[in-house]
Amino acid sequence: MSQARFDVLAVGNAIVDVLSPASDAFLAAEGIAKNAMTLIDEDRARSLYARMQPGKEASGGSAANTVAGVASLGGKAAYIGKVANDQLGEIFTHDIRTIGVHFDTPALQEGPASGRCLINVTPDAARSMCTFLGAAALVTEDDVEAGADALKAAEIIYLEGYLFDREEAKRAYVAAAEMAAAANRRTALTLSDVFCVDRHRASFRHLVANHIDILLANEAELLALYETEDFDTALKAVRQDVAIAAVTRSEKGAVIVAGEETVTVAAEPVSKLVDTTGAGDLFASGFLLGIAQGRPLAEAGKMGAISAAEIISHYGARPDCSLKDLAEEAGIAFE
Fold first, then answer.
1. What pLDDT digit, counting tens, does each position of 241-293 carry?
2. Which of 95, 128, 195, 253 is the most exposed place for a label (fewest CB within 10 A)?
3. DSSP states of 155-197 as a string?
4. Which of 20, 18, 87, 21 has the alpha carbon at shortest distance from 59?
């Protein structure tokens, strides 16, 4: 394998997040599914935004948040995602490049606007997301081909499950995985959301079994993937499908399996739980960078836990401080 130019290259929905505080009554009145991601159209996005409380806008998207975390940990990251040639697209492009992530996917010149995710955060820190994908959903094999040089030069290619709603995106993911395999690189997938798994279970199962080396999921997503209510049964199944699986379990931490090996990772303490948006994304940041750097599973898991703990202590899904500094304070050494 040639020397990697990037630790992690991610492919996903390029989204601008709008985060606002909300009550359970507001969610009920608006018909918003709590603690889940619901796809909406552009008209619904405009009307909901008008009724939300003042909030915080920041570039987001699940896999984009992950590579932002990789960069904050001092890793080398790249991203493939689609924005439109509009103001939000310019904001996204500026933000991701400013934090040191390589991003050169051509902007969409005609068609829908750039994507945005309207996130209502209730006092219990649950995040309820209504997403207008717009241009973000239009990633194709052409975009993968355009980013081929960067993709082949990444230790790990990380695919975002949320992007799986269009057949073109599914083909793009298979193309990316095949390109990674041909270059002797590893491919990772996040299942993203239980509703996402329910929509695409058969496609996910095929992708995981045939093209994925590393799977990331939370407990509910893993159970949904294998259609079981028993965690041990799901772990046994995923061991057969992938080389490594990391399963987050909220305050219970995470379980990592690789072959016959099982590693339990404790959740890092958090002084105040503010917003769980991006917890899984940032766990993936630390974990994938650790794996890309050849660290033991337990250490990679701890890097993930540290990154997740930082992100849930404030609003927004991008780090507010250097994750590398936090990791070093916890005793993790970097070259």
1. 999 999 999 889 999 999 999 999 999 998 888 878 789 999 999 999 999 99
2. 195
3. EEEEEEGGGGGSHHHHHHHHHHHHHHHHTT-EEEEE---HHHH
4. 18
Which one, of 68, 72, 90, 73, lies nearest residue 16 by Cα? 90
- E-assigned strand segments in 65-185: 77-80, 102-103, 115-121, 127-132, 154-160
Residue ranges covered by each domain of the chain: 6-12+62-102+138-329
Contact between residue 139 and residue 11 where contact means Cβ atoms under 8 Å apart = yes
CATH number for domain 6-12+62-102+138-329, candidates 3.40.50.300, 3.40.190.10, 3.10.20.30, 3.40.1190.20: 3.40.1190.20
Q: Quote the CA–CA distance of 37 and 113 in Å, as a whole number.
A: 19
Q: How many Cα atoms occupy the beta-carbon half-sphere of 95 within 13 Å?
A: 22
Enter the tokens of residue 49: 């935004």
**How far apart, in whole angstroms, are the C-alpha atoms of residue 303 and residue 307?**
6
Compute the distance between CA of residue 192 and CA of residue 281 in angstroms, rounded to an integer: 9
H or E stretch including 20?
Answer: strand 15-21
Note whether 49 and 300 are within 8 A (CB). no
pTM: 0.90
Task: Identify whether the C-beta of residue 283 lies closer than 8 Å to the C-beta of residue 24.
Answer: no
Tokens of 154: 């990444």
78-124 tens-digit pLDDT: 999 999 999 889 989 999 999 999 999 999 999 999 999 999 999 99
Rg of the chain over CA atoms, in angstroms? 18
| The one-letter amino acid at 147 | G
The length of the chain, given as a count of residues:
335
Residues 247/219, Cβ–Cβ less than 8 Å: yes
Tell me, what amino acid is at 196?
C
